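A sample follows:
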Amino acid sequence: MRKKRRSEDGGFNIWRSYSDMMAGVLLLFVLIMCVTLFQAQKSYDDSLKERDEKIALQETYTEELLEKQKTLDEQAGTLKSQDEQIKSKDETIKSQDEKLSSLAERLTEQQKTLEKQQKTLEEQQKKLASQKKKLSAQQDTLEEQQSALDEKTELLATQQQKIDKIIGVKAEVVEALQKEFSKKNLNVDIDSQTGALTLNANVMFDYDQAELTDSGKMTLSMVLPTYCKVLLADSYKKYLGEIIIDGYTDTDGDYSYNLELSQKRSLAVAQYLLDIEGDFLKDKQIQELQDCLTVNGHSMSDPVLDADGNVDKDASRRVEVKFRLKDEEMIQELNKIMQADGTSESKDSKAGADKKAKKDDGKDSSADSGSPKSDSKKN
């Protein structure tokens, strides 16, 4: 009996423990559900609050946009009014311009009338001048003025020739270069404005090389002597400032590499010129050439463009030989001419003033000598 009772008590305790455990689990589940519902409610409230804030902000933006639209409409109305005012003013200005044009025509007619009257008055004054002495004096004055005018005209013509010669030196040099190349039947690319001689680098050098080819040397031996002999001629060397050799590459590759390549190519042309200078220049001209020779490399700058505006790479690879005149010397010579002109004018004006003063002195002395005679008659 005791064993049976003990076994029943043990089974009851197990079920009671199990029920307690299940109750705890249920309670835990209920708590989790409550926390989950609380958080969900809070998230829902936060989303509602955020939505309300966005709606309020949207309404604020809408009001601002409406106000700005209203302002823009007002400004558009103001601009329209101003346009109408401008049109009205333009019409007023146009009307005034027409009136001014009419007045200008009237003034022109009046001016013509005044000129006719002036001519008539001058003719009458000439008729009134009947005294032979005055006419003779006027004739002498006119002859002196005409003589002075002729001298000035001759001086101005001489000065104009000098100025034209100085200004036209570059054009003369370019023309002389063209004639010299044409005389030797050399077909070269020379700029008719600047006199720059363009040499195709594809003929002068192999691709990506700075050493002259045989055909390049042959071309230079025909072109450079002609170019330099014209520039170093006695007629032009006093105006010559520099003989410049510029090297250019195409736009492929690195700038620094192309700069070095263009410098080497222009230097190779200059060195070849110095190597052959003794074949066509005198000793004095050789020194003059060395004094004015300049070499530059321009890398890929200033490329040549084709008709479509694209870079012509073959034409861009080139060497240009050009010259610069001594602008300072030319300006100084122009100043000398202008100073000479001013000196001659001042001398002429001084001589005229002295002559006029002598005539005035003669008139005064004759008037003074006549006064005592009239007094003696009175006495």
Q: What stands out?
A: Strands lie at 189-190, 197-200, 240-248, 293-297, 318-325.
